[in-house]
Design a protein that fits this description.
Mean pLDDT: 80
CATH architecture: Orthogonal Bundle
Strand content: 5-15%
Helix content: 55-70%
CATH class: Mainly Alpha
Number of strands: 2
Number of domains: 1
Distance between the termini: 38 Å
Structural class: mainly alpha
Number of helices: 6
Shape: globular
CATH superfamily: Winged helix-like DNA-binding domain superfamily/Winged helix DNA-binding domain
Low-confidence stretches: none
Strand order of the largest sheet: 1-2
Largest sheet: 2 strands, antiparallel
């Protein structure tokens, strides 16, 4: 499955807000700078997250989470960026049937997976990469790798 850039940016914004939320408001400039995202696009993504009900915004204050990352399903996030813009089919023709089948299958596979699960998987993967680098060090050369 090819990841939509907007979905990736949405995950990054939610990750930042989850790490820096604590009820505090976060500015777009801070979120975009920390995550390395273009500020205008970051703002657009955050507005979509507001529309989906995951984040709230207040003019002059910024953005903050409305839901904990454990309460945001990956399916819901994908719907916020992927499926919600599709027009309703007037008749149940082949494109509509295919779209409905795709939607049902994606929902089936992503039930129960939350944004927090993705964050934890990323942390675990980074931890394993760090352990692999340490294991490759040669103690005879003062810890330097061969």
């Amino acid at each position: 499955m090819k990841m939509n850039r907007t979905l990736a940016y949405g995950l990054a914004c939610l990750h930042y807000l989850g790490q820096n939320n604590g009820g505090a408001w976060n500015q777009v400039a801070d979120i975009s700078r920390f995550q390395g995202l273009p500020a205008p696009y970051c703002n657009k993504v955050l507005q979509a997250l507001v529309h989906a009900g995951f984040v709230e915004s207040q003019k002059g204050k910024g953005y903050r989470l409305l839901k904990e990352l454990d309460d945001i399903s990956v399916w819901g996030l994908m719907e916020a960026f992927t499926f919600n813009g599709a027009p309703e089919a007037q008749r149940e023709e082949v494109p509509g049937k295919l779209y409905k089948k795709l939607r049902d299958e994606v929902n089936h596979w992503l039930v129960g997976l939350t944004v927090q699960d993705i964050v934890e998987m990323m942390k675990e993967e980074e931890s394993h990469k760090g352990e692999g680098k340490k294991a490759g060090a040669n103690p005879q050369n003062g810890g330097a790798e061969d």
